[in-house]
Amino acid sequence: MPLIKNAAEIDDPYLRALDDAPVPEQGAVLLPAARFLADAQDLAGRSGQTGVIWRNDRDIGELAPWLDKLSLVALVFPTFRDGRAYTQARLLRERYRFRGELRATGDVLRDQFLFLHRSGFDAFEVKKPGDAQAFIDAIHRYSVFYQPAADGERGTLWRRIKPAPARHNAVNEFTS
């Protein structure tokens, strides 16, 4: 399954560990949520990168205490009609200030790519190899957005507003 990250196709550096498989000390590993939460204290001391696969029916707040120990959160879209992972992505980026990789996995379609990116996702697992280039092209399709979002792009209104000049503080001028 192709992986798109930062608008380029890459090899996935993460090893997907099963629930009962030992977790290697070195290297990047991606764990199911239940496994991660059960072993979170032990996994926090790993020297390799740790990621978690988080279903969209779980409360993202459960993950908040561990975000500084994670390099990747993979949010699952069970069907393309189920958009709860969009909300989880926005919460991770805006409320919890997660700066690691945020990956969309599951039933992700190329029509959703730009919306996923604007919600804070920076990596995408693509089901069909032929769709990889379409995903990459989608991010460059639009350069201006009306509303600001989790991707850091300022809306068109904010581009037009000039910063206010520094205010002169007359009180300090006479008391110094």
TrEMBL record:
Domain of life: Bacteria
InterPro entries, sorted: UCP030820 (IPR008318)
UniProt cross-references to Pfam families, sorted A to Z: DUF934
Protein name: Oxidoreductase
Organism: Pseudorhodoplanes sinuspersici
